[in-house]
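=== RUN LOG ===
request id: a7f3
mode: sequence -> structure
chains: 1
length: 147
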Amino acid sequence: MAKIKTILLAEDNPKDVELTLEAMAENNLANEIVVVRDGVEALEFLRCQGKFKLREHGNPVLVLLDIKMPRMDGIETLRNIRIDKALRRIPVVVLTSSSEEKDLINTYDLGVNAYVVKPVGFQQFIEAVKQIGSFWAVLNEIPLQRN
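=== RESULT ===
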């Protein structure tokens, strides 16, 4: 039996979490989606630390990362992911309301795989998330994790 591919969603806005989960479900993605509320929790999940210390080891197939989050923002989280040898190959898609050029440049300089500005309209948001999920969690191939 194939292992379910996990998507990590780092998002502090409950409404955006709900919309993202709805879009994934609407697209029939058979992925487990783990939601964390900030960059600190995202790194704890990825490193199997804190409240995630007992989770099954293995990297998610995708990290959906907001930029504007409490405790540790998305740019600092991305920096930590990219400098960690065990995490650096995980595809990271920034899904944010920020259309600031400095955020776009900073994330690409840090090796983000894609940068998507959250559409304002409900249907456009749903469609954008469906497309992200379809490509990154279904079609894209990533190297096996070696310990």
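=== NOTES ===
Helices lie at 14-26, 39-46, 74-83, 101-109, 122-139.
The radius of gyration is 14 Å.
=== END ===
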